[in-house]
Design brief:
This protein is an alpha+beta fold. It has 24 helices and 17 strands.
């Protein structure tokens, strides 16, 4: 797992000022160092420059980048971030076609595959990936992102030069490209945040390579191509066959994603998703006489303050204990205190270059830092809820029928803090409505599909295109910043495509959430876990944490130089601080309630200061 950045202009001569452009590449490496702390590589040619930082997972000795291949007097180069889970099959096919490999790395497989198949190689890859590959002789280059969007990738164009990076910060290392935010960028942060519109980078002029897309760059222009998307089709398997196929796909994806030249671990919450991943991994490792490492997360003294609610019905610890005993893993219980939670709020903005899911991100960042001394690769249970229909908005009537994003139906908490004139200028409701309708209109549906079944499709597609992307971004940034590669077996495109067309009565038989997944993986879980009601990632309920946030926010808004004073109404904020917070009524997702709004405001202020954003 790695990070990369670079620039390209087929009409330029970057060697005319070699020292300056080599320094730019070095600065890009420095900006992305956290994504690959094992080694870095750079290359500068007349027409392009590439920078790469590497976290060594596969072929530790020989997988250095940028990687070069020469064929028929042509030179091809690649920088790549990710893991390809069908590397073995692709390598064997290429060997059958006469190719000889110098390394065991998946980087070389992609590069040779590109020489053999051209850009059609993207239709063969199963994995998580982002890469840039250049064909020097034909003056063609491609910037590619995986089908689901697990790996981040951004780009912009400046005076004819194409600039790209795994993270936005890498782009800002190119001279004259500076952070600017217009009215649309503000709406992304204030109206939709911590979600963001796919394809946008929030900062003016910064774009995101959308999941399942690649960019083609030639001598004259940049072209965007979609190479993968979900397709609506009739589901022809009966219930028994659906269970069988689901079981195979989930098991196969988990086993494929265990490939590594270093030990692996899992995040284990005691919920069904992470427990399935952990159980499959533990059984596979046991065949080799090895023990799986597992980690669970909680907040210091949270059992004293926790109150069950509709969004978080139970604490994780009792269920973690059951699973650890069941799979015999080497388990570590990690706890996060208020100070660590607070301090990582601002670092989580640094790693995403945007305000985040507040302490949902900062706690994950803290936990990943604690995992790093033990493991470099972890598997997680992310994405199962979006794919199998586990979230409340798949089931609750008011969420299901809401003509807006079901995880943020009520934006009154947002309007309760910002200046009225800014709210009017942003036209928040209109911006949200337009963003929502765009996704609804592109939802893949069957001809003639109407009513409830059509809405099932829409809710599923909304989750995959929006909510899942926010969580994937969170997992990638928090793990990579800590020098960990996090893998998401449920985001396998085979699982996503198959489950997108499974009828709801099979996914949630008798109204039981994720009943299909429970039935398919029955042999891997004890009954207590198999029947556990969904409870999301934990959060703190300690009133001392809320008090800490309140005091910090008051200090910020009383400082006249704080940029957030340009967008918030101070009287509104004081009223909000003084109100009793309803922990069971989130304004975003399942976890972001009153205290998280305080934290989000602190993040916005820090973000505005960091990037010198003025309103």
């Amino acid at each position: 797992m790695c990070g990369f950045a670079g620039f390209l202009n087929f009409k330029a001569d970057f060697l005319y000022n070699k020292g300056m452009y080599e320094e730019i590449l070095e600065n890009m490496c420095t900006a992305l160092y956290h994504r690959g702390q094992d080694e870095k590589g750079k290359i500068l040619t007349k027409e392009y420059g590439l920078a790469h930082t590497r976290l060594s997972i596969i072929d530790i000795e020989n997988g250095k980048q940028p990687m070069t291949a020469k064929f028929d007097n042509n030179t091809y180069r690649i920088v790549y971030n990710g893991e390809i889970y069908n590397t073995k099959e692709i390598r064997e096919e290429l060997r059958d076609r006469g190719w000889v490999f110098e390394t065991n790395s998946d980087t070389e497989v992609i590069l040779i595959g590109f020489i053999e198949f051209g850009i059609e190689i993207v239709n063969i890859l199963n994995g998580i990936f982002a890469f840039f590959v250049v064909d020097e002789e034909n003056k063609m280059a491609y910037l590619v992102r995986d089908q689901v969007g697990v790996k981040p990738l951004y780009y912009t164009e400046y005076e004819g030069t194409f600039v790209f990076s795994s993270e936005i910060k890498g782009i800002f290392e190119f001279p004259e490209i500076v952070p600017k935010v217009d009215i649309n960028g503000l709406n992304e942060v204030m109206s939709l945040g911590p979600a963001k519109t796919y394809g946008l980078g929030v900062f003016k002029g910064i774009k995101e390579v959308k999941p399942g897309y690649y960019l083609e760059i030639d001598y004259n222009d940049i072209y965007e191509h979609c190479y993968w998307k979900l397709v609506a089709m009739e589901h022809e398997d009966n219930y028994e066959k659906t269970i069988e196929k689901t079981s195979f796909l989930v098991e196969d994806s988990i086993k494929r994603q265990m490939v590594s030249d270093v030990p692996i671990a899992t995040f284990l919450s005691g919920g069904i998703d992470s427990s399935i991943v952990s159980s499959v991994c533990a059984k596979e490792l046991a065949k080799k006489g090895e023990t799986l490492g597992t980690f669970s997360f909680e907040f210091t003294d949270n059992e004293k303050h926790y109150k069950s609610n509709a969004f978080q019905p139970s604490l994780d610890r009792p269920y973690v204990d059951i699973m650890v005993d069941y799979i015999k893993s080497e388990h570590r219980y990690l706890e996060c205190g208020n100070d660590d939670l607070f301090e990582n709020l601002f670092e989580s903005v640094d790693i995403r270059d945007l305000p985040t899911m507040a302490d949902v991100d900062s706690s994950m960042l803290y936990f990943c830092k604690q995992v790093k001394p033990f493991y470099k690769v972890v598997l997680t249970g992310e994405c199962a809820d979006e794919i199998f229909g586990g979230y409340p908005w798949f089931h609750k009537k008011e969420c299901f029928e809401a003509d807006t994003f079901p995880w943020s139906m009520d934006i009154s908490a947002r309007k309760a803090i910002f200046k009225d004139e800014l709210i009017n200028e942003l036209k928040m409701d209109e911006y949200i409505r337009k963003s929502y309708r765009k996704t609804i209109e592109e939802t893949p549906i069957l001809k003639g599909e109407i009513g409830v079944e059509k809405r099932r499709r829409e809710i599923s597609y909304l989750n995959i295109k929006w909510f899942m992307q926010t969580l994937l971004d969170r997992m990638d940034r928090c793990s990579m910043y800590s020098g960990i590669e996090a893998r998401v077996p449920f985001a396998d495109i085979r699982i996503m495509q198959y489950l997108y067309n499974v009828p709801w009565e099979m996914k949630a038989q008798n109204g039981v959430e994720k009943s299909l997944l429970r039935e398919a993986m029955k042999g891997y879980l004890p009954d207590q876990i198999l029947n556990r009601k969904k409870s999301p990632y934990p959060k703190t309920y300690d009133p001392a944490y809320e008090k800490k946030l309140s005091n910090a926010l008051i200090e910020v808004i009383e400082d006249k130089s704080s940029p957030i004073n340009n967008i918030i109404d101070k009287n509104k904020v004081y009223t909000f601080i003084g109100e009793k917070k309803d922990y069971g009524k989130p304004w975003y997702g399942q976890l972001m309630a009153g205290p998280q709004m305080l934290a989000y405001l602190l993040q916005i202020n820090y973000w505005m200061e960091k990037f010198k954003i003025s309103i």
